[in-house]
Specification:
single chain; alpha+beta; 2 domains; 3-stranded antiparallel beta sheet; 9 strands; 14% strand
Length: 331
Amino acid sequence: VNGTKDMIATGECWIYVSDVASLPEISLRISKSFKKNKMNYTLPILCKVRNVSRTVVTDAGGKLLWDLSVLSRSTELLTSELADSIIAGQDVEKLKRRIDHVQASVSSTQVFKTRYDKATRENIMEMISDIQEKLDSLHAMLSQYLRREAKNVSLLARAEDLKFSAQFSKSRRQRLMDRRVARNFNTVKSHALKSAVASEESLRSLTDDALNFYFCVLYMSSVKDILMDPSDLENAIGIGLAVARPEHVVDDPTSLRVYSISGSLVSRSSVMDALKYKISMTNPLSAHGGFSFVSMYQSELSYATFGASREPINAWLPLYVCPAHWERVKS
């Protein structure tokens, strides 16, 4: 009516406060800038906040998920701004610093804390993976745009990619590993189809003390929770190890060297998630050490995660625990 139109919009904002009771009232002020007949105009838009819903986040997992949602939104804004700058042929140095800052925030995110349960950790890793995928696209756009000034950057990137693939220097060992992986995959696949969730009857022998002892410090799950989880029939509980191995471990498995045995019990899925996360954030060598021996007294040992006492973990060894758990391990 009379050239006016009502519009309804929804939005989110985040506020850090020390006292929940001090949450302020929300008000909005919006203006639209436009250009007409070579003149710049600013039009104020009247706004009225009709409904406000508040969610107070107090637990550590919820706070981290909210921080990651902010990083995700920042990444989307950077994508738009970078695309505009590239199209206009503008300098992208400031955007590059902002992208590096977001990347540093994502890389420094501590996923494996004892305060996060399995569901929260899975949500965190999913969000980090999504943000990292966006950041990878931004880095690719930046490199393509800046390559006109530094054409040898692609050679350096290719050298980094080839660094790990060159660890298997012997083609015979590569073929041996391929055959072993194929054979193990078929075995695991056939057993996985026969696997089932453990029943209460099969776990009746586990006492409360046993459930408290056989407890994954990364996923915050007991062995009973692991065995009765229908979403992951390959998960089991074991001990974390810090190991190193030479390349000929493919021919001689006894050459594997165990440097330390963790006092923390961890599940298979938690260690695999830690390896996957560390590799995606850094490189494979920093997660499992590659095929090389390190000095017994070397302070820096490649690791995927830490145990409860900050001991390094880059490998995993399953435990017997009970017959139902051992059946899961053997399969």
